[in-house]
């Protein structure tokens, strides 16, 4: 299994490198010059073609793309010095570049925003499972009954509402109209500053993500569980005289979890890479909002950094899913 | 038969599943008895109700989706209508079941030993993990698994087909059940392994003096194992009696059909296998009268359209008490001898 993990990590590195190259090239050859944001910022929105040309020259956008990508990649591992205007910025490793919009090092901004995104993602993902799996199991055990049908159809309805509408309405009602005290102050406070405020601020975003996301986990779990409960080995477990809870959870759920884990691994990676709608609606300064505004402002260093970060998360979460597979199912031998 | 002290008494058992297309009566008025140390073979095609009736003995049907009437008494305990905790006390303890296709019937994610230990511990709550493990190893050894102390930690997929079936049997017998129901225990195995498994079952039965119900569609298995045979067709018992009589002088055309379709290794290579024509009937709309009449070659020997209109009673045949059959034929012995035996074993007819 160790050799397998190493092999997968190596192929993951290749994926991450390819993603970073693709994003770099996309902006380099894109419709707007990557130097425009800094030009606008430095000249107070009076960016003439001459000045733009000047900034492009300074930032190296007139050089060969291969060399510039090389500089960028090298900077991640060794750090580099970046001359901008008449100052030289010392960018320590891992150097992901300098955001001209916010006049800050990209790495520092990433580190600053990461705790907010992790808070949202981990809480939301926890609720995906904590709500989705038990509800799915309960529905599977009562399949075909009125309660099961009501649950399945209401969850289908819920999951067909666009998420941004769902979250926006939740925010509108809980925060503005009803002003529910504990849900009313959504936003991010660092947990190290004030754990209670952190929790209060995160509660509504968590519930929105969790309740909306758990609908699909309920569906997956219910489907997998219905299938598992009709397996021969479940009949064997009953014939042994085991109590129903042991039959359902120990013998049934462990098999039914395999497909659920697959989806969850990917979802967790996506959540950690930034939850754009959630962060936007609940005013949380996380990776998702940062990446979105960077795209709008052609802020290449930030876009590259968020894309790289997302790719790394997806690669790692896929690997973790594979390892969990082999733990759940002894027939899976990772090699 | 009809022994009041019998360990297993099934009386007038019917099992019905409501479906969107109407009720399906998988078992219809089935009665039989079985004493300790005895073996009953239940034969029939797929869908004849063999497994459904046996699963009812353990109360394994989902109570919300099944209608069970009649009576099943196991060692004096009425199983029909028994509550879940009561059933759990029986299952795997005094009544155990071993299933066909042990690869599917054993949990793929748990070690063989822990599955056996689990079966032991659920009925011996005071036993420690180590005791349960020791018991599991002991049972694996008893059913002939080589190196049981290391194989106990294998997963089912690391066992061969025959070993898995042995492990299944070990799991069934781990609590010394008085009644063992074996549902096609040798179906997925090759013949040599089949013979070993049947031998093992017989040895263990002698040792534990348990009552055994063996469900099969293989009359060879019946001949080897059973003291009595119950032939089922479309949910009903159509013939029931001592094994020797059922195999030597059967009185119901469906049983004849089963006998005719057994390949005989010593027969002339030109000899043909004679299949039963047609397909098993739909249980949603079973045939009128005798369920077998649409496939029966001897309907014309019964006056009028009795076979199509009237369900024959389960009556004593010409062999005397203990051998009952459900057929309108007046002279089944003679028809069997003249038409069936002449076709499948001409030498036997000539001898007599």
TrEMBL record, chain A:
Pfam families: BPD_transp_1, BPD_transp_1_N. PROSITE patterns: ABC_TM1 (PS50928). Residues 114-321 form the ABC transmembrane type-1 domain. SUPFAM superfamilies: MetI-like. It comes from the Bacteria. The chain crosses the membrane at residues 9-30, 116-138, 150-178, 198-215, 256-282, 302-328. One of its GO terms (biological process) is transmembrane transport. Keywords: Cell membrane, Membrane, Transmembrane, Transmembrane helix, Transport. The keyword Transmembrane helix applies. GO terms for cellular component: plasma membrane. Signal peptide: none annotated. It is found in: Cell membrane. InterPro entries: BPD_transp_1_N (IPR045621), MetI-like (IPR000515), MetI-like_sf (IPR035906). Belongs to the binding-protein-dependent transport system permease family. This is Peptide/nickel transport system permease protein. The lineage of its organism: Bacteria, Bacillati, Actinomycetota, Actinomycetes, Propionibacteriales.
Automatic annotation (TrEMBL), chain B:
Keywords: ATP-binding, Cell membrane, Membrane, Nucleotide-binding, Transport. Pfam families: ABC_tran, oligo_HPY. One of its GO terms (biological process) is peptide transport. Residues 8-259 form the ABC transporter domain. Its main location: membrane. GO terms for cellular component: plasma membrane. GO terms for molecular function: ATP binding; ATP hydrolysis activity. SUPFAM superfamilies: P-loop containing nucleoside triphosphate hydrolases. The keyword Metal-binding does not apply. It comes from the Bacteria. CDD domains: ABC_NikE_OppD_transporters. It is found in: Cell membrane. It is a peripheral membrane protein. Belongs to the ABC transporter superfamily. PANTHER family: DIPEPTIDE TRANSPORT ATP-BINDING PROTEIN DPPD (PTHR43297:SF2), OLIGOPEPTIDE TRANSPORT ATP-BINDING PROTEIN APPD (PTHR43297). This is Peptide/nickel transport system ATP-binding protein. It comes from Nocardioides szechwanensis.
């Amino acid at each position: 299994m160790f050799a397998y993990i190493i092999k997968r990590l190596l192929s993951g590195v290749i994926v991450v490198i390819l993603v970073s190259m693709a994003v770099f090239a996309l902006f380099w050859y894109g419709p707007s010059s990557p130097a425009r944001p800094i030009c606008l910022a430095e000249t107070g929105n009076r960016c003439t073609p001459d000045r733009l040309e000047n900034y492009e020259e300074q930032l190296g956008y007139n050089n060969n793309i291969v060399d510039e990508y090389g500089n960028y990649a090298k900077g991640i591992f060794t750090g580099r010095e970046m001359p901008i205007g008449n100052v030289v910025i010392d960018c320590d490793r891992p150097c992901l570049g300098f955001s001209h919009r916010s006049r800050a090092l990209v790495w520092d901004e990433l580190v600053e925003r990461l705790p907010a995104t992790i808070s949202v993602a981990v809480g939301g993902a926890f609720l995906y499972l904590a709500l989705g799996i038990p509800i799915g199991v309960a529905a599977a055990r009562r399949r075909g009954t009125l309660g099961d049908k009501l649950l399945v159809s209401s969850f289908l309805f819920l999951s067909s509402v666009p998420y941004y509408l769902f979250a926006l309405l939740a925010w509108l009602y809980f925060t503005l109209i009803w002003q529910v005290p504990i849900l009313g102050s959504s936003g991010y406070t660092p947990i190290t500053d004030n754990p209670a405020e952190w929790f209060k601020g995160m509660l509504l975003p968590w519930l929105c993500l969790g309740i909306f996301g758990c609908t699909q986990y309920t569906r997956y779990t219910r489907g997998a569980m219905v299938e598992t409960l009709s397996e021969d080995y479940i009949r064997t477990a009953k014939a042994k005289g085991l109590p129903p809870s042991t039959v359902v959870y120990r013998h049934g759920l462990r098999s039914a979890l395999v497909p659920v884990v697959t989806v969850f691994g990917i979802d967790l990676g996506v959540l950690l890479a930034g939850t754009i709608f959630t962060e936007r609606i609940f005013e949380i300064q996380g990776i998702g909002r940062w990446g979105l505004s960077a795209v709008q402002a052609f802020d290449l260093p930030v876009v590259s950094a968020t894309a790289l970060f997302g790719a790394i998360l997806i690669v790692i979460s896929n690997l973790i899913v594979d390892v969990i597979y082999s733990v759940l199912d002894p027939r899976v031998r990772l090699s | 038969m009809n022994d009041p002290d019998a360990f297993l008494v099934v009386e007038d058992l019917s099992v019905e599943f409501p479906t969107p297309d109407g009720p399906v009566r998988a078992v219809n008025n089935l009665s039989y008895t079985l004493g300790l140390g005895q073996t009953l073979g239940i034969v029939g095609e797929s869908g004849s109700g063999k497994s459904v009736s046996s699963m009812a003995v353990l109360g394994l049907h989902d109570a919300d989706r099944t209608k069970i009437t009649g009576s099943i008494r196991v060692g004096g305990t009425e199983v029909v209508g028994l509550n879940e905790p009561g059933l759990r006390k029986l299952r795997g303890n005094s009544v155990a079941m071993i299933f066909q296709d042990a690869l599917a019937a054993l949990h793929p994610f748990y070690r063989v030993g822990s599955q056996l230990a689990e079966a032991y511990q659920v009925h011996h709550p005071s036993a420690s993990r180590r005791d349960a493990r020791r018991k599991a190893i002991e049972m694996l050894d008893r059913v002939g698994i080589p190196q049981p102390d290391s194989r106990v930690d294998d997963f089912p997929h690391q066992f061969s087909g025959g070993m898995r079936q042995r492990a299944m049997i070990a799991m069934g017998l781990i609590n010394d059940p008085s009644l063992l129901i074996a549902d096609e225990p040798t179906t997925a195995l090759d013949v040599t392994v089949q013979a070993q498994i049947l031998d093992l079952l017989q040895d263990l039965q002698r040792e534990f003096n348990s009552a055994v119900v063996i469900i099969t569609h293989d009359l060879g298995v019946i001949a080897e194992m059973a003291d009595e045979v119950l032939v089922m067709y479309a949910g009903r018992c159509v013939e029931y009696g001592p094994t020797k009589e059922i195999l030597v002088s059967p009185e119901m055309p469906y049983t004849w059909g089963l006998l005719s379709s057994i390949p005989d290794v010593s027969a002339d290579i030109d000899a043909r296998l004679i299949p039963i024509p047609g397909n098993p009937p739909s249980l949603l709309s079973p045939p009128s009268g005798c369920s077998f009449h649409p496939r029966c070659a001897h309907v014309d020997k019964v006056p009028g359209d009795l076979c199509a209109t009237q369900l024959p009673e389960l009556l004593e045949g010409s062999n005397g008490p203990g051998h009952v059959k459900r057929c309108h034929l007046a002279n089944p012995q003679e028809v069997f001898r003249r038409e069936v035996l002449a076709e499948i074993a001409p030498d036997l007819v000539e001898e007599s």
